[in-house]
Design a protein that fits this description.
With about 400 residues, this protein is α+β, with helices and mostly antiparallel strands. The protein has helices at about 10-25, 35-50, 70-80, 85-90, 95-105, 110-120, 240-275, 290-315, 325-355, 360-370, 375-395, and strands at about 125-130, 145-150, 150-165, 170-175, 190-195, 200-205, 220-230, 235, 280, 285. A hairpin with a 2-residue loop joins strand 2 (about 145-150) and strand 3. The structure holds flavin-adenine dinucleotide (FAD).
Amino acid sequence: MIDFTIPPDLAEIQSRVAAFVRDRVLPIEPEVDESNFDQHLSRLQGAGREDGLWNPHLPPEWGGLGLGALGMALVSQELGASGLASLALNCMAPDEGNMHLLLHAATAGQQERYLRPLADGATRSCFAMTERDVGSSDPSQLRTSAKEDGDLWVLNGEKWFISGANGAAFAIVVARTEDGGPDADPRTQFTLFLVDADNPGWRVVREIPVMGTHGPGGHCEVRLDDCRVGPEAMLGERGAGLKLAQVRLGPARLAHAMRWIGTAQRALDIATERALGREAFGKQLIRHEAVAWMLADSAIELYAARLMVLHSAWKIDEGMEFRQEVSMVKVHVAEALGRVVDRAIQICGSLGYSSDLPLEGYYRDARAARIYDGPSEVHRMVIARNLANAMLGEGTTKPATGGLA
Ligand SMILES: Cc1cc2nc3c(=O)[nH]c(=O)nc-3n(C[C@H](O)[C@H](O)[C@H](O)COP(=O)(O)OP(=O)(O)OC[C@H]3O[C@@H](n4cnc5c(N)ncnc54)[C@H](O)[C@@H]3O)c2cc1C
């Protein structure tokens, strides 16, 4: 039986999160700028705790609501209406993904030292994988190295576009520890390390200026120069770095898609309200077919996006294989977001292009969605590879198209 009813406990949390965004976040959004961001965020975080919504993604023993992927899909769609909302509940990238990774791979000592303060909202973190000098879509090319020196590991290299690095308490760094030669499986050549930001070998060089919003800590260029860490800094097993990065990135990609749906929904609401409330050439904008069709196309794309996200989240919760679905979600929702926001700007005309509405900011941010956590082209490559494998192995591509009926 296929039952699309939202379980009552999740529906209740979703409606409380929607109320939090509507009553607490959106009213202050227009006042927030760089000068008062920290004060506003800290007040919103207090409100999030007060409303019993803090850390929706973490288990109760870590002070959270214990939501799985489906619960987070529902909640994040509400949070996506404002860039502030996920931060207010402590479940924004990159910290959310790092918390998942620490839960999954860290020792009890590492969890106490790194996860505890993150869960309390006392620190921020970053995830350092990408490098400027190599095509980092292909992580086998990453050059940052970690070499053994007695009991210590010495890390050298440079990382770039590291979100949140400025002011983060620590980084999870992907570094090459093995030299298995050209034939070695790259998934066995890299290891993750926990690097404290006060390590003298870790340096944030600059926040890179970008076209969209940059969130707390910016997107940074970072250097590791003879950065020495002890054996206790290794996160997970030696050589398992890229596999663990995938553990982090799979659900993290879905979490982004869930938030993008919230953003796209708000863009569609703004455009529809405008099209109802304004007239040109003797009738409401929405009565002009060209406008109506733009709105309809956005609704269709949002519906597909929601179904895809909810189905993938369900697969994760059921312990089923989900990577093909999450790749399809990443491509579809990132690209649909761009189109939905673009149409909303068009429908709102000059107002849409102005900063009086959030749409122009959404438009700039949406552009990055097609690049980070795997560019669309790389996900398409993976999707097509899985189609070929399914065809060759099972005589049909059907299992690689979502595995539905
Ligand atoms: C806003 C933002 C935040 C980010 N935050 C982080 C972070 O916190 N930590 C981190 O480590 N990284 C982060 N990144 C980096 C991001 O993950 C990388 O930019 C991304 O993985 C692509 O790597 P690259 O930039 O080196 O592109 P490249 O690998 O140089 O690829 C460039 C382009 O080539 C094309 N291409 C590549 N491979 C293929 C292929 N197989 N088939 C067809 N076309 C292909 C694609 O169009 C791709 O966009 C962030 C990026 C952005 C924009």
